[in-house]
Design the sequence.
């Protein structure tokens, strides 16, 4: 009788352990930084003021610590079941005007941030027709 109880307990434990690893864990896309679109980048040109750049791109994610003449816009997307997307835009200013625009990453492709679908809480402003995704360390 004890062998039967041990066998049943062992098989139940093995079933529970393999069941958890079989289905996997739900994952979400994790966007971080400033969203950089092709439309935004195409509007930038040398000679623009900081105010004009801020109107198009928003506030920069990073400013050079020893000089306010360099703004860095960084976007990073860790797709749940796929690749990662990295974009970086560095703007250098002189006398409050853009003198250099350095790009890295694939600026020609726009990233779809589809946070409205799937399980979980709704995104703030969803359903109003004009939801603007808030991007930060938590991904929303």
Sequence:
């Amino acid at each position: 009788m004890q062998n039967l109880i041990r066998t049943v307990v062992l098989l139940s434990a093995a079933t529970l352990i393999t069941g958890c690893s079989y289905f996997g864990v739900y994952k979400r896309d994790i966007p971080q930084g400033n969203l950089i679109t092709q439309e935004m980048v195409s509007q930038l040109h040398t000679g623009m003021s900081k105010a004009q750049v801020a109107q198009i791109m928003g506030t920069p994610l990073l400013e050079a610590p020893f000089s306010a003449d360099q703004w860095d816009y960084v976007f990073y997307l860790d797709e749940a079941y796929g690749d990662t997307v990295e974009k970086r835009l560095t703007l250098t200013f002189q006398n409050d005007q853009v003198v250099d625009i350095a790009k890295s990453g694939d600026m020609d492709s726009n990233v779809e941030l589809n946070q409205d679908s799937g399980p979980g809480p709704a995104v703030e402003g969803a359903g109003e027709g004009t939801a603007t995704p808030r991007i930060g360390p938590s991904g929303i």
Observations:
- The chain has a mean pLDDT of 78.
- The first strand starts at residue 30 and ends at 33.
- The chain has three helices and five strands.
- Strands lie at 30-33, 62-63, 70-78, 84-94, 97-105.
